[in-house]
Amino acid sequence: MKYLKSVFNFYLNSSIQVSLSVCGFIGVTSLTYNLPVSEYLLGFAFFGTITGYNFVKYAEVARLKHRSLNLPLKTIQVFSFFSFLALAYFTFKISFHTILATGGFALLTFFYAIPFLKNKNLRALTGIKILLVAVVWSGVTLLLPMINKNEILTNNVWIGFVQRIVFVFVLTLPFEIRDLKYDASALGTLPQRVGVRSTKKIGILLLTLALLIEFIKPEINLNYTISLIIICGILGVALLVSEKNQSKYFASFWVENIPVFWFGILYVIQNYLFISF
């Protein structure tokens, strides 16, 4: 049992779960826009997320050399190195314009972790952390699949992009609430600035906004709309029950899996319930 727990902790700490969530969002994009997604793009996104997230999470830890984290940190560093090699392989398999589009998101990720402005990184700028995460996730999971297939970025896609940013913003709030006891006050996260209760209220309002955005799209996909209503309900409940002293795996596993649940819900609706206009 102890061994299984260690494996599960490695699964979470090495960002495998986060990468699956990114792939879950890409799956939602694929089903929504009837867009074939190549295994190369999925591999690029999966290993790119592992590489990027572990760079952000453990760059500071590696510099400080926390003795208590040396063994798992070394294991994660080795895993991250091989993930980087896999990322390099998949980079040569996707289109050049996709690589160019990825560059902007990669720079945001780099400067999120590395100080560049008066010895501050983007993460340290008050209130910007959660918005950066939302923009990068939304760009990678919605725009990149479209760009990789040379699809035109229509108004429908751009409205969906804004909607995805709003959804990811709310998805991040349970983590912000969890990290209240760890984050420096200078970060100015939403729970730090307005409190947990107000953060939940804002999150519910934003989920309502995400739903309303659906009805201003020029083209409405009924299957997607139904799945969006369901997943917003699930995320809303998760946000409402989030607490500062939440269980160890609540956010890092259950909340993190919401994009995967969304893909599963949409897949079932689209392939087995045959809902249509």
Q: What are the key terms here?
A:
74% helix, mainly alpha, 277 residues
Please characterize this protein's 3D structure:
This protein has twelve helices and no strands. With 277 residues, it is mainly alpha-helical. The protein has one domain. It starts with a helix and ends with a helix.
Number of strands: 0
Shape assignment? globular
SSE series: HHHHHHHHHHHH
Biggest sheet character: none
Low-confidence stretches: 62-71
Question: Given the helix and strand composition, which structural class is it?
Answer: mainly alpha
How many H/I helical runs? Answer: 12
- Assembly status: single chain
The whole-angstrom Rg is 19 Å
Q: What fraction strand?
A: under 5%
Could you tell me how far the N terminus lies from the C terminus, measured between alpha carbons in angstroms? 50 Å
Residue-averaged pLDDT: 86
Number of domains: 1
Helix content: over 70%
Lay out the secondary structure.
Layout: H1 2-13, H2 16-32, H3 39-64, H4 70-91, H5 96-113, H6 129-148, H7 155-178, H8 190-194, H9 196-214, H10 222-240, H11 250-255, H12 258-273
Helix pairs in contact: 2-3, 2-6, 2-12, 3-4, 3-5, 5-6, 6-7, 7-9, 7-10, 9-10, 10-12
